[in-house]
Amino acid sequence: MKPVAIFDIDGTIFRSSLLIELVNMLIEKEIFPVEARKVFEDDYTAWVNREDTYERYIQSVVSSFLMYLKGVHYGELKDTADIVLEHHQQRVYRYTRDLLKELKEKGYFLLAISHSPKLILDGFCKNLGFDKVYGMIYEIGPEGRFTGIIEDEHIIRNKANVLRRALEKEHLDLKGSIGVGDTESDISFLEIVERPICFNPNTELYRYARLNNWKVVVERKDVVYEL
Length: 227
Prior knowledge:
The structure is a single chain. The chain is of the alpha/beta class. It has a single domain (3-226), classed as Rossmann fold (3-Layer(aba) Sandwich), CATH 3.40.50.1000. The chain has helices at 18-28, 35-38, 41-48, 54-69, 74-88, 94-105, 118-126, 153-156, 159-170, 187-190, 203-212; strands at 3-7, 109-117, 132-140, 146-151, 173-181, 195-199, 215-220, 223-226. The protein has an eight-stranded mixed sheet, with helices on both faces. Strand 2, helix 7 (118-126) and strand 3 form a beta-alpha-beta unit. Helix 1 crosses helix 5, helix 3 runs antiparallel to helix 4 and helix 5 runs parallel beside helix 7. The two termini are 33 Å apart.
């Protein structure tokens, strides 16, 4: 059996959020109305000014996406995702990029688990050498248009459940396993692996990492260091 390495994507490998970039491009291309930005602009400003959390901001972006996704044609979303990747594919952290390459060379099965849309994750992760990608899948109704419903949401919301499913389906082994994440939503799978790594963690994950003596790595500008 191959050892497995599990990575979150947004904020762990990608130096932003694929969903944020996708929503902004959907608004720019007038596929989403300008009102879609109003759903999250106050929370964005509060985060930038360090008056509120990034988590609140990203949840507002998720709300905007779900609010305006219904009725959008699959082709429109896919074309927009391709534009985002064309602009941002190389916008990655050096530490996790190099770790991915190292683990791939050592024969690890690379598994991505993210709450961004799988439609954009597939293209982003393919170029990084991932073997399997799990992300949000949105139901497509008549005439190829999205209904706004998330498929199997109860599974993908819990990353530990996704990991267990992948272990069974792909015949993987947790011996020597590595997990890398940046927020508390990654704790569930970090608890399962042998070597959890908290990369640029938010406050909640950092506190949990300290309580459990997990490795904490920070990349700031061109410096990578452990805490």
